Amino acid sequence: MATNDLQLKEYSVWDEVKHWLPSILMLPLMIYWVLNRGHYGFIDNADLVIHEAGHIFFMIFGRFIHAAGGTLMQIILPLGIALFFLKNQYKTGVQVSLLWLGQNLINISVYAADARAHKLKLLGGSKVFHDWTYLLSQIGILDYDQQVGYIFYGAAIIIFLISLILPKIFR
Description:
This protein is 70% helix and 0% strand. It is mostly helical. Helix 2 (44-58) crosses helix 3 and helix 3 (63-87) packs across helix 5.
């Protein structure tokens, strides 16, 4: 056998830890966001800019899509980045993008659940348009704003779980 032939490398415990390190590091953030739904933190200002940009981007598609545009952008941007990383087989990038998507879904869950109560302080004050009041009214389910919020919250938890187990999927 030639000296430059491939040699089998032993798989150590440290290799396993490195494989799961992104999941280990992200887990405390996920737990924090799940347990503190409605408390805003460091990433929410960036999410707000993306949300507002979504309204501008989607305004050409009519009033309903314009109103949904902020939420759509909060979903499309991290999902698109996750798909880019997936296509390029960069597991950690996919995990971090899914972490961000899950965080956005929790943020969206709070906003949707506020459609009737109007307790959130919106950009522009109390007289501004509440996206979710309009959206849920238009489709006739305003009375179910809490349930819609919990659907987004549940989706966030599912996305977090997928992100956590990605090392098992990407073997």
